[in-house]
Design a protein that fits this description.
The complex is a heterodimer. By secondary structure, chain A is of the alpha+beta class. Chain A has helices spanning 42-50, 92-101, 107-120, 136-148, 166-183, 194-200, 218-223, 228-233; strands spanning 4-13, 16-26, 31-35, 57-62, 65-66, 77-80, 154-158, 186-191, 203-208, 211-216, 240-247, 250-253, 256-261, 267-272, 277-280, 284-293, 297-304, 307-314, 325-330, 336-339, 350-352. Chain A contains eight helices and 21 strands. In chain A, the strands form four sheets. In chain A, strands 6-7-8-3-9-10 form a six-stranded mixed sheet, with helices on both faces. A six-stranded antiparallel sheet of chain A has the order 20-14-11-12-13-21. A five-stranded antiparallel sheet of chain A has the order 15-19-16-17-18, with no helix packed on it. Chain B is built from 15 helices and no strands. The chains are: A alpha+beta, B mainly alpha.
Chain lengths: 356, 368
């Protein structure tokens, strides 16, 4: 168990700066997700934590002690990769025992601990198999057992669910989460899937281009996204964003006008989440051009004066067919506004549908 | 009415489908048959000489080129091969095919034993026990009065055998060891001129090594390794290493980084990760490289001819060469063939054992 701290960490590969300046504190036993699109530096961050990459600058602290130069094998870190990275020439039990061999653990204890770890992730009956004889989900469990067998101070998960099919992904998500809660091991998850991040992590670090956009609970990122990027990245289906110019309490988007309250700059980006929009008899006119049933809900794509808008309605509500002309509305407290140039959230600025 | 009309349509359609199915099956058979025919035609120029070698080794006497066994053997074996092939296209199940082949070949073996069996003998293999197998010729040659020609004194074939084994074996060990380490480094580490050094290595392999004969002779002579097996081994290592490194690099490229990173976080040092985790993934590549280098060393001729002078350091290739030379006078094709067969056996055994790994070489991925 350990606390982790990034103090002004930077990482360069040759002339290319991948991470310019990173500051982050992770408390003991916390489950943190690094969320971002591919190439945002989240994997680089993970490899610095593992000790595979050396930071180019700054200080990396484990329990307040500097570990920048400490080698991977001395950090007591367990890691699970997307590809599982099991050793193909070893049986499952040898795979799990591998980390213990380097700790000069007595043979009898190795056997006991391998058994314990295997039980923890329910692979006890697979111990004599080879990795190629296992399904993806089983390989994933073995990789987890191997990472956990040495009681790591820090558990790193690099896109651990991406290679699993949808059903299995859901099951493993729950399982990893409950395992982490039981063991209280400090955990860092790297993912590009916002659902994975929001469902599993205590806190999410949303990254873009090597910079941290926002650190917060899943709730924070959804309700109060710090920037346009975070708003666009978190939430499914993705948020509707429209840029407009502000004058005298009115935002203008070409043909459409909405009222704006609070002190915004001259131009803003307005964020409306599809699940906060609903059809009504009056409001902003909309023509339905597409509908995608998603089970409990239906996602409508509508042509409006604002542009194309995604609206999520429960399937129980009167189904709208393609070509129907209607209106949609939203509640003022559910709106977000971002400064158009800095792309940061402007707090307490809300949008309202004008009443005519 | 409507029902009937519909039924007639369906019959028509079914007929149409049947025709198409028959056509596709016919095409498939023709394709298979032509492929087999091509393979057989292409392999005949290689198979016939080997067949000649094998037949003569076990049948020829001392009386010049002897075809009284060769032709009958061909008449017996070729129909058997053709029958085997025809049966393969006719048989529907694997079991049927096996039974048919079993029958064809038992009959062939019986016929062969009856007609050819009595002419087979092992007399041509006398060189295995008697280094002076050509004693009889020496007298004939001497009697013929060839001025300026003396019959070569042969060492025991086993001396040549062990010499060849040493050269091939030692160069294999050195090349596999060096190529594994170098291939790993090139695959995993970035360094200046990485691309160009790889390209240069391949170019080295592309040049005909014969042009280096004299320079290499001079170098080997200067460092005092002339007429030593060790010198020849060094030359073979030098020639084979670039391509071996390239092949090993391809195999290391195919080993995912994550496995190595896992090992490092699991507590291994870089070296431990290499030996315990990465190396076991490329054993197939090492075996493939080993087989190729061994065979290259085993069949090496031009450098051993140049660099080895005394006959106690003859290799199998030199032995075979001199047996052939020698026989130009007295013509004992039986012994020449027998030596050839003896020379081929180790390569053949090695290939058969390692075939599985050699086939994987293309799968292991030779890519830049």
């Amino acid at each position: 168990m350990a606390t982790i701290e990034f103090k002004r960490i930077s990482k360069k590969f040759g002339d290319e700066t991948v991470i310019p300046d990173m500051n982050l504190k992770i408390s003991d036993g916390e489950f943190v997700a690094l969320l971002g699109p591919s190439g945002c530096g989240k994997s680089t961050t993970l490899f610095m934590l593992a000790g595979i990459y050396l930071p180019s600058g700054g200080e990396l602290l484990f329990d307040d002690a500097r570990v920048n130069e400490v080698e991977a094998r001395d950090r007591n870190v367990g890691i699970v990769f997307q590809s599982y990275a099991l050793y193909p020439h070893m049986t499952v039990s040898k795979n799990i025992a591998f980390p213990l061999r380097f700790q000069k653990t007595p043979e009898s204890e190795i056997g006991r601990r391998v058994k314990e770890a295997a039980e923890l992730v329910q692979v006890s009956e697979l111990l004599d198999r080879r990795p190629e004889q296992l399904s993806g989900g089983q390989q994933q469990r073995v990789a987890l057992a191997r990472a956990l067998v040495k009681n790591p101070a820090l558990l790193l998960l690099d896109e651990p669910l991406s290679n699993l099919d949808a059903t299995l992904r859901l099951a493993m998500r729950t399982e990893i989460k409950s395992l982490q809660e039981r063991l209280r091991v400090t955990t860092v998850l790297v993912t590009h899937d916002q659902v994975e991040a929001t469902t599993m992590a205590d806190r999410i670090v949303c990254m873009c281009d090597g910079k941290i956009e926002q650190i917060g609970t899943p709730e924070d990122l959804y309700r109060r996204p710090a920037s346009k990027f975070v708003a666009g990245f978190v939430g499914s289906p993705p948020i509707n964003l429209f840029e407009g110019t502000v004058a005298n309490g009115i935002v203008e988007f070409g043909d459409a006008r909405l009222e704006i309250t609070g002190d915004a700059g001259s131009s803003v980006a307005v964020g409306l989440r599809p699940e906060h929009l609903y059809f009504a008899d009056s409001g902003i006119p909309a023509t339905i051009v597409q509908h995608e049933p998603m089970g409990r809900e239906i996602l409508y794509v509508c042509e409006t004066p604002l542009g194309l808008v995604r609206i999520l309605e429960t399937a129980a509500a009167a189904s709208q067919s393609i070509g129907t002309s209607t209106h949609f509305r939203f509640e003022t407290e559910n709106t977000l506004a971002f400064d158009a140039s800095s792309e940061k959230l402007i707090p307490r600025v809300r949008i309202r549908v004008p009443e005519k | 009415m409507a029902q009937n009309g519909h039924g007639a349509d369906r019959n028509e359609a079914q007929k149409h489908w049947n025709l198409l199915a028959a056509k596709s099956q016919r095409n498939r058979r023709i394709k298979d048959a032509s492929l087999f025919a091509f393979l057989i035609a292409a392999s005949i120029p290689i198979i016939i000489p080997y067949f000649w070698l094998l037949t003569l080794a076990f049948s020829a006497g001392r009386a010049g080129v002897d075809t009284k066994v060769l032709w009958p053997s061909i008449f017996i074996l070729v129909p058997a091969v053709v029958l085997t092939w025809i049966w393969a296209t006719i048989a529907d199940t694997r079991r049927q095919a096996m039974v048919g082949w079993g029958a064809i070949w038992s009959v062939t073996i019986i016929i062969y034993a009856i007609f050819i069996g009595p002419s087979l003998h092992l007399f041509n293999f006398r060189f295995l026990f008697n280094p002076d197998f050509n004693a009889a010729y020496r007298e004939i040659v001497a009697a013929k009065d060839n001025p300026g020609f003396s019959v070569t004194a042969f060492p025991s074939v086993w001396t040549a055998f062990w010499n060849s084994l040493f050269i091939a074996g030692a160069s294999t060990v050195v090349v596999v060891f060096a190529a594994s380490l170098a291939g790993y480094y090139i695959s995993r580490f970035q360094y200046r001129y990485r691309e160009s050094s790889l390209a240069a290595m391949l170019v080295l392999h592309a040049f005909p090594t014969t042009v280096l004969l004299i320079p290499i002779f001079l170098v080997i002579w200067k460092i005092g390794l002339l007429d030593t097996l060790f010198g020849v081994m060094l030359v073979i290592v030098g020639i084979e290493l670039p391509f071996a490194v390239f092949i090993m690099k391809g195999f290391f490229d195919a080993v995912p980084w994550e496995i190595e990173m896992s090992a490092l976080t699991d507590g291994a040092t870089r070296r431990q990760a290499f030996y315990k985790v990465v190396l076991p993934q490329v054993t197939n590549g090492m075996i493939a490289v080993a087989v190729f280098v061994f065979i290259r060393g085993w069949e090496e001729f031009i450098f051993v001819l140049t660099l080895l002078t005394s006959n106690v350091r003859w290799t199998m290739s030199l032995y075979t060469f001199f047996v052939t030379e020698e026989t130009n006078l007295g013509v004992d094709y039986g012994v020449v063939s027998a030596v050839g067969v003896f020379y081929i056996i180790p390569s053949f055994v090695l290939y058969t054992i390692a075939q599985k790994y050699l086939l994987q070489m293309s799968v292991g991925g030779i890519k830049g």
